[in-house]
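Two folds, back to back.
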Amino acid sequence: MVGCEGVSVLLFWLLAKINHKGHSSNKVNTGSVVKGMAERAFITFTMINGITQSLTLFAALKIATRIKDEENKISNDYYLLGNLLSITLAIIYSQLIIKYIG
């Protein structure tokens, strides 16, 4: 899974480059990497334990944290792709854990 996280950092970095608006919130840094790892750990844990409803909670929390005023508008496509990639990685992790460990 460490290798997968390395690939995910590269993918998120490329995604930030594609979204070349230059906003500081679109840059990949240590904080965003750790936050993403924590998010995927949460999703993986809940999926392994069969609590798939947590995806709804996770999505609601992500949307709530992205609500900004008009002056600080964000790129919705950037965050949508990032969240979908994060959830996909967590699904892969949970399936690997179920298959090889569980």
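---
second:
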Amino acid sequence: MADQTVEGSPGPIDKVTDIGRDIGEYIRQQRNNAKISLRQLSRLAGVSNPYLSQIERGVRKPSAEILQQIAKGLRISAEALYVQAGILDVPTGGPVPDAIRADTGLTERQKQVLLDVYESFRRESTAAGNTDDPSDPPPPRAEPTAERPADIAGEE
């Protein structure tokens, strides 16, 4: 049975075109944020200038390999481009990863580094058997003593 669409609603071909346009706009935005020209990105990514231009304009939909090369040229995570292109689902997270991803003051590269560090701490904590409830209050601070002056005890 052929795909049927209601008049005015996008069909499968339109959806692919939208994905191509979305990823192209995203790449252009990241390139502009990085303050590099189309030619510079073309050289850095090893993708021809005309092809990269077609991707940015939504005329071509890049493969995962091309997205990886572009991500390398932009110095952002390939995962970010894969999610934008619809190749990967949006990663699950929680309040901390969601806040990092939502921060418009960070570049994609900075977000990825923060997420990597956060996840490594989570894995380390889990491996050590630390299952503290994050809503538990922090342990009490050490009080200053004669052997432990205020600056060492964490007091100012």
